[in-house]
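This entry is set out below.
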Amino acid sequence: MSTLTSSSPIVELRQYQLNPAATATYTKHTIQSSDLRKTLPLAFFGFPETGSIALNTAVHLYHYPGGTRQRKDERAALAKKDEWKQYLGGVKECMMEQKSEIFVEAGLVHEFEQVTGLEYWIKNDCSMNSGGESIVELRKYQLKLGYDTVPNFLKLYAQALPSKLNAAGTHPTTQLVTILVSDVGSLNTVFEVWKHGGKSSCGMEAMEQSRQASRGAKEWRTGIAEIAKLATSFDTSILKPTSFSPLQ
């Protein structure tokens, strides 16, 4: 059961499964209408290149500091705009399935200077610097049922994280963006959101270099061994940001 109030900050993860034959049409219209979408607090918009999320899925993240009330009001206001109605008319047939889930950012996001949180990217929109080889990595932990499972996970994660963030050999572009905990949708789900690469560095190569570095971080390896006991599954997806995505 959710413990959020209507004004507690939330993160919405939306996934739209597209008809492969219509993905190009959807992408074209979505780029053209990106300014309208960004009247919402959009933090990320991209498509998977590989991993557990199906190809031809539009993945977007929104951060609502004003909570579900802000989400309701702002989405209702956008729905009234003629330009948005026209956009939806052009892409509706491209979509086969839509999914929305609500998350909260874990408290530890605000405890580590190296972890930005999603709101940072909305305020510091990097879409003007798009066009590089950056990637966004979603790492999903599905945890066992139980009220204590998520708190125990976050405690172990926070204890081990410094050794990973400071591991020798970590690529300089690798950055932990946020940790998300499910509130509405599949419960006891935790996402790590990482970014790798940039204009002059390959995201996949940066990710692999940083993974290798983390394997030498003793506290991280110890922490993950304990976290594994709390999880039922773990998977990853690699996403490519669109040109208008604030998080690049």
